[in-house]
Amino acid sequence: MTATLVTGIGELVTNDPAHDGPLGLVHDAALVATDGRVSWVGRSQDAPDADRRVDLEGRAVVPGFVDSHSHLVFAGDRSAEFAARMTGEPYDGGGIAVSVEATRAASDDELRVLLARRVAEMRAQGTTTIEIKSGYGLDVTHEERALRLARELTDETTFLGAHVVPPEARDDRAAYVDLVVGDMLTACAPHARWIDVFCEPHSAHAFTEEESRRVLRAGLDAGLLARVHGNQLGPGPGVGLAVELGAASVDHCTYLSDDDVDALCGSDTVATLLPGVEFSTRSPYPDARRLLDAGVTVALASDCNPGTCYSSSIPLAIALAVREMGMTPAEALQAATLGSARSLRRDDVGHLRVGARADLTVLDAPSYLHIPYRVGVPLARALDL
Ligand SMILES: N=CN[C@@H](CCC(=O)O)C(=O)O
Ligand SMILES: [Zn+2]
Predict the structure, then answer these.
(1) Of 36, 76, 220, 334, which sees the most CB atoms within 10 A?
(2) ipTM for the whole complex
(3) Which residues contact 168 (CB under 8 A, 6 or more apart)?
(4) Residue 385 predicted with pLDDT over 90
(5) Residue nearest to atom 12 of ligand 1 (CA)
């Protein structure tokens, strides 16, 4: 057993209601990590002895960010598509086919290098738990490969064979859905914890309510847990379907009806907001205030992907949530930690109570308030203990 005492923490965010305020703040704090788990939290002056000591010299510490929505397994470049968005070109998911072609053409080792770089980029910005989706293979071989490679880096892997209908299957959508719920699911399920679908009537490339229900039910029957891309491009059935099927999360939630908010309110389905997408597609931001005031659990994630948001920065998502979506800095930080952990049905991350994973993110700043306050400045990094 190796115990490390982290001391000199100017402000510690625990997300533990036993401490101060909604974020469970402790000032002049210390924390002991034993074999990767938090074993003691309190004031520096009361700290026990340990085998090792790390002095953070007054810096703030927050729970490692939990990024519950990313699409990191891709090759190729779509920066020209981003430039077109900035001059008003709308997003409809059609560009996904460009990433599919480049991803299929890449070797396993090329994809491994790209993935490792993106995961390292996330850790360097304070993210310690990462969900990764497939969705740029869209045939049995390449979807299976995407999940197998993602599994080398995280247990939170999501089968997204129903991302869009690939170009070669456009004349027979039904046959493609058959493939997703048949051979593709069989090949992918051993490497996945989750099943997801892009349920979006406003995109000819994505899936209808009925198609989405079929995909999710098949995944649930195969032992996977459900999450949904819903209500991204306009009002739609995604939220209702996610709640109906007990999905852990419905992600985007940019366009919500009163019924959607009511349904989320009485459910265990988390609303995951992805403001980097609205930033990078020049779209209206979701109304986080409305969800929070209704009592819905809200998560924030990056949605790092080559089309709608090629940013892996959770600090940016927090800053946008505060500046554009009516969240307080405390609500935004909690959504990117505890809320995101709930959306992955995890209770060992997203907080720093005794027993949690010792996933600490250090800020080169005295307070968590500096995350949105010093927008664009790289303050946060995951602490290697
Ligand atoms: N909307 C569907 N999927 C991604 C975008 C994928 C892409 O355009 O490459 C998203 O979450 O925004
Ligand atoms: Zn996505």
Answers:
(1) 334
(2) 0.98
(3) none
(4) no
(5) 308
